[in-house]
Inverse folding.
C-alpha cells in the first residue's frame, strides 16, 4: 500500500498516517538499534542461519552482543543466544537485565509477526533487503532478533566469570576526538580501574567500532553503559505518537516519563496540548505529536523502546477519523443499505461510522463541470468517517476506503437542477425516498441544500453512466408532488398595521408556537413559508395526496380567521431588554393575562416584540389554536388583556436611563481575558437589574441565543461594543479601559519568574482533580504555574505572581494543619449518616470546613452524595478504603468536632435503627399506600417509624410477595409491624367475587348518595369509610356497557354482601310497575321540600317512585310510576292517592282589604303549617299590595320637625303629640282573594274556625291611628317591662298596637281597631307616658 499511496494524486501531500510513516522511515537512519554481533572466530566461517546478516555493515546503529565462553571441557564453539536492547514486553519498562541479557536462559519463544501501527506506515513487506523502521534484517518489529532454527541445537549455558558483551557504534555516534576530555584509551583505562570488568575497543566491519566487555555480568553492563555515556555523542530523536496516548506517556503527575528518564538517562520532552496544535476534542489516533528524546545512542534507544512499548499497549484498539475524504463520496463508500461497510466489518473487531450525508451544511457541493472534466471535490474536516476497533483491522479498512476514494475520484460526476424548495424533502429524507433505496435503484446520490439557504439547486452525484438515471428519478419524484398556495394576507385586508405586516406577524407567531409543524404532521404535508424579509405572504403547501392539501389549506384559513389583527399587538422594545423579557416576563404575562410574547432572536437585533392573546387556556399543555372568527365580546377581551400586558412590558423601560452605545478598542489578544473579566463583573449585578450588553468578537460572526453580550456586530476585530443605561455603560467602559491598560503593563512583565518550595505531599491538592485547582489559579491570577517535584514555578506579572504565591503558600499552611480521622462504622449505617442526597454530610462539611468520605458502596446508595463527587486528591485511593471506614479530613479543630458530631449521630442512628420486615402481597401495596400516599403517611405519623415500601420495579418472590422494611426505635418498629401484619393478614384472607347484575339494577343498589350500598356493606360488617367502601364494592362506570360488580374483602364480609345483593336483585326481579295519574301541579306534594316526601314514601313502603320531570309532555306528564313488590306497590299507591286527595284543599274567600291584617305578614301561615299541618295558597292569584305605613309621612304633614334627644325636655301633653286616625274602609281594595287550605279534614275544620274569628275581628278594625310622641325616649314607657304596658292596653281596648323599634327616626305607633278602641288606646298610651314622666326620667 505504500507504493499505492505514493502514486495517489489525491494524497500527494499525504494523510497524517502517511506523513507519520515517512517520519518513521527517516528517523530509522538515526536510531540506535540492536543487532547480533557475531564472534570474530565465527565471521570466517558463518553458519547458514547468518547468511542474510550481511546488511549490518551499512547500518550505523549501535548493537550489543552477549557471549559466554564455555568451560574447557565443552568441545567446540557455540553461538550465543541473543536478547535485544529494551526487549521488555508492551507497557513494561526495559530493565537493565533486559537491556544486557545473559546466556543460559534456554530457548525463547518466537516473536510475534510484525504489525504496523495504525497511525504509522503501511503494512511492511514480507521480505526486504533494506532495514524496516530502523530494524536490520532478521529482526522482528519489536526488536527481537529473528533466529531460525533456534532451539534445534544444543542448549547454551552461562558460566560464572566468563561473561562477555559487546556494543558497537557508527563513527557518527561517537564524540569527535576534539570534544573528548581524554583520549579513548585513557577513558577505557579509567573505566577498567573502577570496574571489575575489562572493556576493549575493536574495529568492526564497515568502519563500525566495537566495545567488548568481559567479566561479571553486572560489572560488564555498567562498564559498557559508562562507555556509551562518556564516548557516545548526544542524539536527538523525535518519535511521532498518537495524541491520545500522550497522558499515558506522561503518567500521573509525570511519574511515567520521569521514570523512563531515570532508568535510561535520556531527557524526554512531551509537548503540551496547546503546543502540539492538536485540539483536545480531536485527540484520536489519527492525530500525532512528536516526543523529543535527547541522550547518548544507548540511552535514546532505551527510551524510544519504552515509549513505543507503551504506545503498542495502548493502541491495540484504535480510533481513527478520516477527514480527507469528500462528503459527497460517503453514500458510495457506505453502499446501498450500508452493504460495503457491513462487508468490511464482517468477521472483524471493527466499527465503521460513515455520516449519513444528503444535505450539505456549511460547504456546498462543487459546481457541475463542463464537458468531460472531473468535479473538484473537497473534504469536510468537520464530518469525518470514524473507524474504531482492532489496530490491524482498522488499518486494512482504511486502506480499502482510500482505495475506493481513488476510484470514486475518477468515476463520479455531478449534475445540478433547480427544484421547488417545498419538493426537496419529498425526494430524499424523512418524508421522501430513502437515500439507500435511491442509491440502489439509480446508482446515484442526492444532496439537498439546507433550509437556511435560499438556493433551489439540488445536486445529483453518481457515475457518468448512471447520472442520467438519477436525474430522471429526481424529476419523477418532484413531479409526483401536489402543490397549492394560500395567501393569508387576504383574510384580513383592513388590518391597522397593513395586511402584509399582519400576515408576517401571524406567521412569526405560529412558527414560535410550532403550529406549522403540527399542521405538517397532521396532514402529512410540507409547508414552505416566505422568508422574513420577503414581501410575499403566500404559504406553499406540498403533499403527495391532493386531498391532504385541500384539508390543510382549509385548516390554515380557519386558523388565520381565528387570529384577527385585534388578537395581536406590536411593541417597539429596544433589544437591550429582550433577554430580560424572555427570562423574567414572558411566563408572567402568559399566566396573568393569557398573552404570549414573541421576542426576536438575538441574531436579528430587531426591536419588534409581538404580543398575542391566547386566553386562560394558554398555560395548559394541550392549548388549542382558535379557528373561528371571534365575537365582539371576545375582541374586547383581547384588547383589554393586550393593553394590560403592554403596560407591564413598557413599564419595564421607565425605570432606566436613556440607553446608549459605546465602542471600546481592545487588542484581540486580550479578548478571551476580557470575556472572563466581564463575566466576573456582571456576576455581581442584582437580579432586578439588566446587565450591560457586551459584544466581543470578530466582525460579522454569528451569535447564538445563549450569548447575552450581543448588542450588535463589531465592525472590526478589535472593537468591543457596550449597550445599556448611560451610567452603567460609562462605569463598565472605565473598568474595561483600566483592565486593558493593566494587561498591557502585565504583558511587559510576563518574563518575571518566581519559584519556591512546596511540600510534595500536597501537590495533588494544589493541582486538583484533572488539574481543576491549578487551572483556577492560573485563570484567577493570569500567570503560568508549574509544579515539579516539590517546586512551584510561577511566571507572569510580578504583582500577580506574588499574589498567586501567597495563595499557594497559604494553601500549604492550611494543609499542614490538616488531620485525617478514620472511623470504623458498619456499612449498614452509612446511608443514614450520609442523609438524603448527602444532606447530613454536606452540613458537616460546611460547618467544620472538612472533607468526609464514605466508601463508594455508601455513595451509590444515595445518588449525589459528596462521597461520590468529592475530590480524593492526596488521599488513599478510594478502592483501598475499607467498606466500614469513614474518613474525615480537614483542619485539626474542625476535624475533631466533626468526628464528635458524626459519632453522636451514629449513636442516635444505632438507637433508632431497630428494623423489621413484613411480607405482603405485591397487589396489596396500592391499598397500603392509599391515594396520594395518605394511608402510609398516616401510618408513619401514628407509629413514628420509617417505613420503606418497595416500588413497582422491585423484585417479587415466586409467591408474588414483597418485603416492607420498618426502621426506628424498638417501640416504633413493634407498633408499625403489628399494624402492617394485621392489614396483611386481613388482605391475605380477603377474596374477590364478581356478580353479573343487569345495569338497570345498579342505580337501585347504590341508592341516593350511595345510601343503599352503604347500608348493605355496614350490615355485612364492612367499613363505613367512603374510600374503603368504594374499594370493597366496585360498580362499572355509567358510560360503560359492563354489568359486572366486583366485591373484594374478607371472606365473611364478601359473602354477606354478595348474598344481600343477590337477595335484592331476586326481589327486584319479582317487582311490578304501576302508574298513578297525578296532576302535574300536584307533583310537588309527592316530592316535598328537597325530595323529603318521596324519600319517606320509598323508605316506608320499600318502593321506587318515579315522578315525571317538568319537561315531560303528553300522557307521561301525569303518570307517576311505582316500582316494588305487589303488596308494597298497592300500599304506596293508596298512600299517594290519599296525599293527593287530602291536598285537594278547601277554599274560603277573604276580603282583600283585610288580607294582610289577617296574615300578619305571613306569621299566620307559618303557625297554621307548624301547629295544624295545614298549608295555605291562593290558587295562583297575586295577593293585594301591602298598604303603605303612613306614620312618618303623617308626622311630617302635621307636625314639622321632631324634637331631638339632646333637646330640652318638653311637655308630653296631648297638645305636643302627633295623632292621626284614618278610616280603613275608605279607598279599600274591594273584592276577595281565595285562601286554599290543604291538609286533613279535621285540621282544615279547626283552621277554618280560626280564620272565621280572625275575619270577624279584622272587619271590626275599621280605623288605624298613628301616634308620634314628642320625646323618643318615652316610647319605652309605652312598651313597659317585658311588654306589660302595651299588652295591658291591647287587652283593654281590643286593638292591635305596634310600637316601632326605631323610635329615633320619628316613626308612629300604629293602633288598629274600631274607632272607639283606637281613641281609647291613644288615651291609655298618653296616660302611661304622663305617669312615667311624673316619676322622673330615667
Amino acid at each position: 500500500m505504500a507504493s499505492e499511496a505514493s502514486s495517489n494524486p489525491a494524497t500527494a501531500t499525504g494523510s497524517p498516517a502517511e506523513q507519520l510513516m515517512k517520519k518513521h522511515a527517516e528517523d530509522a537512519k538515526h536510531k540506535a538499534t540492536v543487532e547480533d554481533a557475531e564472534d570474530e572466530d565465527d565471521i570466517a566461517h558463518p553458519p547458514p542461519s547468518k547468511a542474510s546478516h550481511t546488511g549490518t555493515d551499512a547500518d550505523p546503529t549501535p548493537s550489543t552482543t552477549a557471549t559466554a565462553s564455555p568451560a574447557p571441557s565443552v568441545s567446540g564453539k557455540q553461538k550465543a543466544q541473543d536478547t535485544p536492547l529494551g526487549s521488555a514486553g508492551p507497557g513494561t519498562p526495559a530493565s537493565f537485565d533486559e537491556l544486557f541479557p545473559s546466556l543460559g536462559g534456554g530457548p525463547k519463544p518466537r516473536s510475534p509477526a510484525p504489525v504496523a501501527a495504525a497511525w504509522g506506515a503501511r503494512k511492511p513487506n514480507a521480505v526486504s533487503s533494506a532495514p524496516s523502521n530502523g530494524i536490520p534484517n532478521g529482526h522482528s518489529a519489536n526488536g527481537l532478533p529473528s533466529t531460525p532454527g533456534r532451539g534445534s541445537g544444543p542448549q547454551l549455558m552461562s558460566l560464572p566469570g566468563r561473561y562477555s558483551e559487546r556494543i558497537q557504534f557508527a563513527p557518527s555516534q561517537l564524540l569527535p576526538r576534539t570534544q573528548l576530555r581524554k583520549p579513548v584509551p585513557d577513558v577505557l583505562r579509567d573505566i577498567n580501574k573502577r570496574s571489575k570488568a575489562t572493556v576493549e575497543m575493536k574495529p568492526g566491519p564497515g568502519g563500525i567500532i566495537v566495545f567488548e566487555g568481559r567479566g561479571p555480568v553486572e560489572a560488564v553492563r555498567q562498564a559498557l553503559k559508562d562507555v556509551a555515556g562518556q564516548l557516545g555523542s548526544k542524539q536527538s530523536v523525535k518519535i511521532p505518537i498518537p495524541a491520545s496516548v500522550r497522558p499515558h506517556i506522561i503518567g500521573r503527575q509525570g511519574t511515567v516519563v520521569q521514570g523512563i528518564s531515570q532508568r535510561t538517562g535520556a531527557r524526554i520532552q512531551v509537548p503540551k496540548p496547546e503546543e502540539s496544535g492538536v485540539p483536545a476534542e480531536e485527540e484520536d489516533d489519527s492525530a500525532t505529536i512528536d516526543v523529543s528524546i535527547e541522550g547518548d545512542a544507548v540511552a535514546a534507544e532505551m527510551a524510544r523502546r519504552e515509549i513505543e512499548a507503551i504506545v503498542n499497549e495502548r493502541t491495540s484498539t484504535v480510533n481513527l477519523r478520516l477527514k480527507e475524504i469528500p462528503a459527497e463520496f460517503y453514500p458510495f463508500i457506505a453502499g446501498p443499505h450500508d452493504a460495503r461497510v457491513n462487508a468490511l466489518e464482517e468477521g472483524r473487531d471493527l466499527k465503521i461510522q460513515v455520516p449519513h450525508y444528503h444535505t450539505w451544511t456549511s460547504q456546498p457541493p462543487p459546481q457541475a463541470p463542463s464537458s468531460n472534466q472531473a468535479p473538484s471535490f473537497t473534504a469536510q474536516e468537520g464530518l469525518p468517517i470514524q473507524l474504531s476497533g482492532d489496530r490491524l483491522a482498522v488499518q486494512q479498512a482504511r486502506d480499502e476506503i482510500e482505495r475506493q476514494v481513488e476510484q470514486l475520484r475518477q468515476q463520479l460526476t455531478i449534475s445540478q437542477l433547480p427544484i421547488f424548495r417545498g419538493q426537496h424533502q419529498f425526494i430524499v429524507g424523512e418524508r421522501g425516498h430513502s437515500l439507500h433505496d435511491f442509491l440502489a435503484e439509480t446508482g446515484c446520490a442526492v444532496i439537498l441544500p439546507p433550509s437556511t439557504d435560499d438556493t433551489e439547486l439540488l445536486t445529483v452525484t453518481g457515475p457518468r453512466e448512471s447520472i442520467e438515471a438519477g436525474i430522471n428519478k429526481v424529476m419523477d419524484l418532484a413531479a409526483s408532488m401536489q402543490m397549492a398556495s394560500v395567501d393569508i394576507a387576504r383574510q384580513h385586508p383592513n388590518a391597522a398595521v397593513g395586511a402584509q405586516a399582519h400576515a408576517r406577524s401571524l406567521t412569526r407567531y405560529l412558527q414560535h408556537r410550532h403550529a406549522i409543524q403540527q399542521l405538517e404532521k397532521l396532514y402529512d404535508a410540507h409547508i414552505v413559508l416566505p422568508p422574513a424579509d420577503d414581501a410575499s405572504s403566500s404559504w406553499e403547501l406540498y403533499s403527495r395526496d391532493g386531498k391532504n392539501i385541500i384539508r390543510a389549506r382549509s385548516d390554515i384559513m380557519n386558523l388565520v380567521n381565528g387570529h384577527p389583527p385585534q388578537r395581536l399587538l406590536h411593541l417597539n422594545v429596544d433589544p437591550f431588554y429582550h433577554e430580560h423579557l424572555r427570562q423574567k416576563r414572558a411566563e408572567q404575562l402568559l399566566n396573568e393575562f393569557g398573552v404570549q410574547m414573541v421576542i426576536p432572536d438575538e441574531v436579528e437585533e430587531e426591536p419588534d416584540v409581538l404580543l398575542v392573546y391566547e386566553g386562560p387556556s394558554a398555560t395548559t399543555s394541550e392549548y388549542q389554536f382558535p379557528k373561528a372568527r371571534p365575537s365582539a365580546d371576545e375582541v374586547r377581551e383581547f384588547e383589554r388583556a393586550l393593553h394590560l400586558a403592554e403596560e407591564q412590558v413598557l413599564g419595564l423601560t421607565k425605570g432606566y436611563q436613556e440607553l446608549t452605545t459605546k465602542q471600546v478598542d481592545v487588542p484581540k489578544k486580550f479578548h478571551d481575558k476580557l470575556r472572563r473579566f466581564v463575566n466576573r463583573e456582571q456576576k455581581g449585578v442584582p437580579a432586578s437589574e439588566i446587565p450591560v450588553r457586551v459584544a466581543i468578537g470578530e466582525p460579522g460572526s454569528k451569535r447564538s441565543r445563549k450569548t447575552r453580550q450581543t448588542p450588535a456586530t463589531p465592525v472590526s476585530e478589535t472593537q468591543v461594543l457596550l449597550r445599556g443605561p448611560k451610567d452603567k455603560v460609562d462605569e463598565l467602559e472605565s473598568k474595561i479601559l483600566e483592565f486593558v491598560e493593566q494587561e498591557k503593563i502585565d504583558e511587559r512583565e510576563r518574563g518575571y519568574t518566581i519559584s519556591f518550595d512546596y511540600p510534595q505531599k500536597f501537590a495533588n491538592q494544589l493541582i486538583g482533580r484533572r488539574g481543576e485547582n491549578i487551572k483556577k489559579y492560573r485563570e484567577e491570577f493570569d500567570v503560568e504555574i508549574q509544579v515539579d517535584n516539590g517546586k512551584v514555578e510561577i511566571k507572569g506579572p510580578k504583582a500577580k505572581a506574588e499574589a498567586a504565591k501567597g495563595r499557594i503558600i497559604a494553601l500549604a499552611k492550611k494543609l499542614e494543619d490538616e488531620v485525617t480521622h478514620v472511623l470504623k462504622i458498619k456499612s449498614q449505617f452509612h446511608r443514614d449518616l450520609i442523609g438524603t442526597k448527602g444532606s447530613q454530610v454536606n452540613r458537616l462539611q460546611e460547618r467544620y470546613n472538612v472533607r468526609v468520605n464514605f466508601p463508594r458502596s455508601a455513595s451509590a446508595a444515595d445518588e449525589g452524595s459528596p462521597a461520590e463527587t468529592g475530590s480524593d486528591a492526596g488521599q488513599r485511593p478510594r478502592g483501598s478504603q475499607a467498606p466500614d471506614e469513614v474518613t474525615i479530613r480537614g483542619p485539626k479543630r474542625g476535624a475533631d468536632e466533626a468526628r464528635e458530631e458524626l459519632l453522636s449521630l451514629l449513636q442516635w442512628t444505632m438507637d433508632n435503627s431497630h428494623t423489621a420486615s413484613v411480607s405482603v402481597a405485591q397487589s396489596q401495596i396500592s391499598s397500603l399506600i392509599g391515594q396520594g400516599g395518605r394511608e402510609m403517611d398516616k401510618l408513619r405519623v401514628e407509629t413514628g417509624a420509617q417505613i420503606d415500601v418497595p416500588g413497582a420495579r422491585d423484585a417479587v418472590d415466586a409467591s408474588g410477595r414483597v418485603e416492607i422494611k420498618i426502621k426506628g426505635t424498638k417501640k416504633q418498629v413493634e407498633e408499625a409491624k403489628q399494624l402492617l401484619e394485621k392489614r396483611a393478614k386481613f388482605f391475605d384472607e380477603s377474596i374477590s367475587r364478581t356478580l353479573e347484575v343487569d345495569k338497570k339494577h345498579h342505580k337501585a343498589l347504590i341508592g341516593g348518595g350511595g345510601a343503599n350500598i352503604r347500608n348493605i356493606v355496614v350490615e355485612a360488617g364492612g367499613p363505613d369509610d367512603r374510600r374503603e367502601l368504594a374499594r370493597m364494592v366496585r360498580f362499572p362506570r355509567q358510560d360503560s356497557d359492563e354489568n359486572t360488580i366486583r366485591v373484594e374483602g374478607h371472606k365473611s364480609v364478601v359473602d354477606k354482601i354478595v348474598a344481600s345483593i343477590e337477595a335484592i336483585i331476586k326481589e327486584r326481579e319479582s317487582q311490578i310497575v304501576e302508574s298513578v295519574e297525578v296532576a302535574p301541579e300536584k307533583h310537588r306534594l309527592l316530592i316535598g321540600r328537597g325530595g323529603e316526601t318521596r324519600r319517606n314514601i320509598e323508605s316506608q313502603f320499600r318502593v321506587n317512585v318515579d315522578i315525571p320531570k317538568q319537561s315531560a309532555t303528553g300522557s307521561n306528564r301525569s303518570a307517576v310510576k311505582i316500582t316494588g313488590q305487589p303488596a308494597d306497590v298497592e300500599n304506596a299507591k293508596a298512600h299517594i292517592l290519599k296525599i293527593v286527595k287530602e291536598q285537594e284543599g278547601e277554599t274560603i274567600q277573604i276580603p282583600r282589604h283585610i288580607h294582610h291584617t289577617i296574615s300578619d305578614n305571613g306569621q299566620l301561615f307559618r303557625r297554621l303549617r307548624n301547629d295544624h299541618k295545614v298549608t295555605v295558597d291562593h290558587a295562583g292569584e297575586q295577593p293585594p299590595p301591602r298598604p303603605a305605613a303612613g306614620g312618618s309621612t303623617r308626622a311630617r304633614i302635621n307636625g314639622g320637625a321632631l324634637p331631638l334627644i339632646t333637646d330640652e325636655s318638653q311637655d308630653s301633653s296631648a297638645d305636643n303629640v302627633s295623632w292621626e286616625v284614618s278610616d280603613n274602609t275608605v279607598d279599600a281594595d274591594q273584592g276577595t282573594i281565595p285562601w286554599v287550605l290543604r291538609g286533613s279534614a279535621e285540621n282544615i275544620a279547626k283552621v277554618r274556625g280560626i280564620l272565621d274569628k280572625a275575619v270577624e275581628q279584622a272587619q271590626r278594625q275599621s280605623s288605624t291611628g298613628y301616634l308620634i310622641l314628642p320625646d323618643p325616649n318615652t316610647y319605652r314607657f309605652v312598651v313597659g317591662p317585658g311588654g306589660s304596658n302595651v299588652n295591658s292596653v291591647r287587652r283593654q281596648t281590643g286593638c292591635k298596637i305596634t310600637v316601632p323599634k326605631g323610635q329615633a327616626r320619628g316613626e308612629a305607633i300604629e293602633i288598629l281597631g274600631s274607632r272607639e278602641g283606637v281613641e281609647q288606646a291613644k288615651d291609655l298610651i298618653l296616660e302611661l307616658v304622663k305617669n312615667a314622666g311624673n316619676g322622673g326620667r330615667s
Observations:
- The first helix runs from residue 2 to 6.
- The chain has a mean pLDDT of 77.
